[in-house]
């Protein structure tokens, strides 16, 4: 016979091209991962090696198998044999049977199964523990956004499910490994299951298999936006500090616009990948709303986040490269957002002209800005310094690792009352508050709040702070001279300088300050 083709545990009958083919099954395929339909005659959707073990042609030690393509059947029975439970399937377009093959020894099976990819220690119990934990080297919370539109149709939808199942298995899902969920895009998006629902590959595979095809327009943009906003909440199982990823599967092209959804996903710190299958042909391009739909939706248009497969057939070879991308922790450029990757220091004027009740309004303003950010030991951090002629560090960046604690610390700041030396206060804050974090991963911002003329020079200290990588926003109230405010602010000064006559006007500025911080953060990342 001709040389056998080495296949993987997951190769299905329909992945083979010839009428009769000699293949080599690898050893140690995990039995519970096999999809087998029928008995003796198997639906071409079945795993070839699974069918071979089921029918007794080989054992789990692998071996040579001859696969014969047969016509489709009206029904395939479910039979339990040799440790594999085959499943019922009504009508399938083609089938195959398996017999013992002749092994060409020169060709050992290269189709390493998932379980043999890691060297076995020979101690069984240890392995089962590891399996539960999953692949700890792959840190990811992933939503598979699958195409459930009429574009793809029932048959290719099933192939898509199969592919997603293989990716899920190869990822090494487990309590300490990747977690996955699935959202189906059609007319309206439907979250099929969340990250928290399953932590074992076996359960995920079963859930994927149970998914029903919805049909409808392929409103991928709508589904992407919905997933970015709703899927990754802590109560739905998203984990702090783990990259959030959406893998969008698109057969053909979307019916709606992806641009806005891409922006929302980036704002929410989600890394969007697009797997496009059967890209629009030249004739079809006229029907596509926006030819650049992939570039607008992905996290970064650098080639890493887009992935193409010509068809849904024979996709096994595409599984591993995709899994490798999804596990590349350091490439997830969209995980950092202005909300979770900034240090904001507030420099608060405590001089006598402010007065106790206005000082409360200042603290309320500080709270409202701080509230917008994701404050944690691995996220954004907030510090506050109050100044008169003297400076007092109310709390530093490392004092409070949660939003609740920061907000309560702001509430507890006591009004000092005294003179105004803003320049000194900026130097003090740059040195003592920002100094210790200057080599950290977060971008540094200083918000200076003052209601009057400073007794000392502000321009020199502000320029030194900016040189040290601190972006300065100046917020003036009442008698604060505009020249001082502009001298302190970072470039472009217009967008970093704020002024209000009354302390009550601070409230309206909150969204502008937050937006300003986010804009600077994004500009620094380009």
UniProtKB/TrEMBL annotation:
It comes from the Eukaryota. Pfam families: LCCL, VWA. Residues 112-132 are annotated as: Disordered. Residues 3-96 form the LCCL domain. It is found in: Secreted. Transmembrane segments: none annotated. Its main location: secreted. Keywords: Disulfide bond, Glycoprotein, Repeat, Secreted, Signal. Residues 141-326, 343-513 form the VWFA domain. This is Cochlin. It comes from Edolisoma coerulescens. The lineage of its organism: Eukaryota, Metazoa, Chordata, Craniata, Vertebrata.
């Amino acid at each position: 016979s001709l040389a056998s083709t080495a296949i993987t545990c997951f190769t299905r009958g329909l992945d083979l091209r010839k009428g009769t083919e000699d293949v080599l099954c690898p050893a140690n395929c995990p039995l519970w991962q096999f999809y087998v339909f029928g008995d003796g005659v198997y639906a071409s959707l079945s795993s070839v090696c699974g069918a071979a073990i089921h029918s007794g042609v080989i054992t789990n030690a692998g071996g040579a198998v001859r696969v014969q393509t047969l016509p489709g059947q009206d029904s395939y029975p479910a039979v339990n044999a040799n440790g594999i439970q085959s499943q019922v399937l009504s009508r399938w377009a083609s089938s195959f049977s398996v017999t013992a093959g002749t092994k060409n020894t020169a060709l050992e099976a290269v189709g390493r199964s998932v379980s043999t990819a890691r060297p076995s220690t020979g101690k069984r119990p240890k392995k089962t523990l590891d399996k539960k934990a999953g692949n700890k080297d792959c840190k990811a919370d992933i939503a598979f956004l699958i195409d459930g539109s009429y574009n793809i149709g029932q048959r290719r939808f099933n192939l898509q499910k199969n592919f997603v199942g293989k990716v899920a298995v190869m990822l090494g899902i487990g309590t300490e490994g990747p977690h996955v969920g699935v959202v189906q895009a059609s007319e309206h998006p439907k979250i099929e299951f969340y990250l928290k629902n399953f932590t074992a590959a076996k359960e995920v595979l079963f859930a994927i298999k149970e998914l029903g095809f919805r049909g409808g327009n392929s409103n991928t943009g709508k589904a992407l936006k919905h997933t970015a906003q709703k899927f990754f909440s802590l109560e739905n199982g998203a984990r702090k500090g783990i990259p959030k990823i959406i893998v969008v599967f698109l057969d053909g092209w979307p019916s709606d616009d992806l641009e806005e959804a891409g922006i929302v996903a980036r704002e929410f710190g989600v890394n969007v990948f697009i797997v496009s299958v059967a890209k629009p042909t030249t004739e079809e391009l006229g029907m596509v709303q926006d030819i650049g739909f992939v570039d607008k939706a992905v996290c970064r248009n650098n080639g890493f986040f887009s992935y193409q497969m010509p068809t849904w057939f024979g996709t096994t070879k595409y599984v591993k490269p995709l899994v490798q991308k999804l596990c590349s922790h350091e490439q997830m450029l969209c995980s950092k957002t202005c909300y979770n990757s900034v240090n904001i220091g507030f420099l608060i004027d405590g001089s006598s002209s402010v007065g106790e009740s206005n000082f409360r309004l200042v603290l309320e303003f500080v709270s409202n800005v701080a509230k917008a950010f994701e404050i944690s030991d691995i996220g954004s951090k907030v510090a506050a310094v109050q100044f008169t002629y003297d400076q007092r560090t109310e709390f530093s960046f490392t004092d409070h690792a949660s939003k609740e604690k920061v907000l309560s610390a702001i509430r507890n700041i006591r009004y000092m009352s005294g003179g105004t030396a803003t320049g000194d206060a900026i130097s003090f804050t740059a040195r003592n508050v920002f100094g210790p974090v200057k080599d950290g991963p977060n971008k540094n911002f200083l918000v200076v709040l003052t209601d009057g003329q400073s007794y000392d020079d502000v321009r020199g200290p502000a320029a030194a702070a900016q040189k040290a990588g601190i972006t300065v926003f100046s917020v003036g109230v009442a008698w604060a001279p505009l020249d001082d405010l502009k001298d302190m602010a970072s470039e472009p000064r217009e967008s970093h300088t704020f002024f209000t006559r009354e302390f009550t006007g601070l409230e309206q500025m909150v969204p502008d300050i937050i937006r300003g911080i986010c804009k600077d953060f994004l500009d620094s990342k380009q």
